[in-house]
Amino acid sequence: MKLKSGLAAVLAVAFSGAVVGASTPGPSHGIDYPTGWQEWGTIAVSHRTDNNTLRVILGNDVAIEAARKGRTNPWPDGAILGKVVWKDTELADWKAATAPGRFVHAEFMFRDSKKYAATHGWGWARWVGLEQQPFQKGPQVCIGCHMPVAKRNWVFTDPAALPGRPVK
Amino acid sequence: MKLKSGLAAVLAVAFSGAVVGASTPGPSHGIDYPTGWQEWGTIAVSHRTDNNTLRVILGNDVAIEAARKGRTNPWPDGAILGKVVWKDTELADWKAATAPGRFVHAEFMFRDSKKYAATHGWGWARWVGLEQQPFQKGPQVCIGCHMPVAKRNWVFTDPAALPGRPVK
After folding, report:
1. Do B42 and A56 touch (CB under 8 A)?
2. Which residue of A39, A91, A166 is in closest CB contact with B19?
3. Beta carbons of B12 and A17 less than 8 Å apart
4. Strand partners, B109
5. Which among B114, B117, B136, B115 has a CA at the least distance from the CA of B125?
6. Cα–Cα distance, B56 to A55 (Å, whole number)
7. Taking burial as the number of CB atoms within 10 A of a residue's CB, which of A6, B37, B88, B118 is the most buried?
8. What pLDDT score does B168 carry?
9. Which residue has the higher pLDDT, A22 or B109?
10. Does the pLDDT of residue B33 top 60, yes or no?
11. Taking Cα atoms as reference points, which of A123, A125, A146, A145 lies closest to residue A136?
C-alpha cells in the first residue's frame, strides 16, 4: 500500500489519543478492552426493528483491510469487529428518520482461530453503557444469538459497498 | 492529547493508503474530493424510512474532535462531515434487521465560515455511485433539504453518545 502523507500520520496519532485521565474498563470474558475503538473505520450499519436499535459495525485495521478485500469467510486472525448499539429515536427535524438515542453497549468479536478455537475461532466480549461495564455472562450468550450465521464465520453483516479509495 | 503508541501511527498510515492506481474523482461544486473519507471516524448513523436508506455520518479529524467535545453549533472551520448512503435491504439471517444494500452516494459538508459565507458557512458537495461521479446540480439542492436545521448549523444528526475514550 502507498502512504498518503505524513500529515495523515500526524493527525491519526493525535486523534488516537483519548480522554486524559480516564481509566480503561476491565476485561469481559477475560478479553482486554480494545482501547481506541471509537476511532476505528466503518464496515457497515444496521437497524433492528425488533428491539429498536441502530448499530454501526466498526473494525480494527486488520478487519478493515479484510473487509475492503472481501476476505471475510473466514475473517483473518487479528481482526476485531465492534458493534456499537444505540436505542433509536425519531429525528426531530425529519420525522421519517431515526437516529441514535441512548447508548446501549459496544460488543466485539476478536478473531483468533487457535486461541479461541473452543468458541468457534472468536473471542466474544461486550462492554455495557457509557460507563463500559464488562459483560460477564459468558460467550454462549453471544454465540447463541449468532447461531444463524455459523456458516458466515459467525458474522451477520456483510461489509457495506464502498467506492475504491482513490489516491491523490 | 497524549499519543497512544507508535504502532497506531504506523497502522494508521498503512491504511490511509488506498487502491493503487485508482484516480481521484473530479470536484463537485468546485470542491475537491475528500480523499480517504472511507477511513474517517464515525459520528452517527441514521435510517430514513421515507426513501429506505441507511446512513453513516463520518467526520474528518477536525469534525471528530468537535463532535467528541460537543462543539457543533457552529462546527469549527476545517470540519468536514460525510454522509454515506445505502439503500436498505433485509438482513437474510435476521428478518427484523435492515442492512446496507446498494451504495447510493457520499455527500459532504465542508465548514469554512468565510470561504463559504454565501452558502451558510458550508461547502456542499456530493459524489454519486460507486464510480463517484461529481454532483453538479448546485448547492441549493443540498441547502433546500437542510432548511429545517438552519438553526442547528445546518446539520441534522447530533453526534451519537459514545463512551469516553480511555487511555491504557
Report:
1. yes
2. A166
3. no
4. B81, B124
5. B136
6. 10
7. B88
8. 31
9. B109
10. yes
11. A125
| B94 pLDDT more than 50 | yes
- Per residue in A34-74, pLDDT (tens digit) is 999 999 999 999 999 999 999 999 999 999 999 999 999 99
Which one, of A71, A66, A161, lies nearest residue B132 by Cα?
A161
Q: How confident is the model at residue A16 (pLDDT cuts 50, 70, 90)?
A: very low
Q: Cβ–Cβ of B15/A130 closer than 8 Å?
A: no
Q: What is the pLDDT of residue A66?
A: 96
Q: Which residues of A101-110 are buried (b: 16+ CB within 10 A; e: fewer)?
A: bebbbbbbbb
Tell me which amino acid residue B161 is: A
Cell of A101: 438515542
Cell of B104: 447510493
The minimum CA-CA distance between B88 and chain A, rounded to whole Å, is 9
Q: Is the pLDDT of residue B22 over 70?
A: no
Q: Which spans in A49-101 are helix H? A: 61-69
Long-range contacts of B63-67 (CB under 8 A, 24+ apart): B63/B111, B64/A15, B64/A39, B64/B40, B65/A15, B67/B43, B67/B159
CA B168 – CA B166 distance, rounded (Å): 7
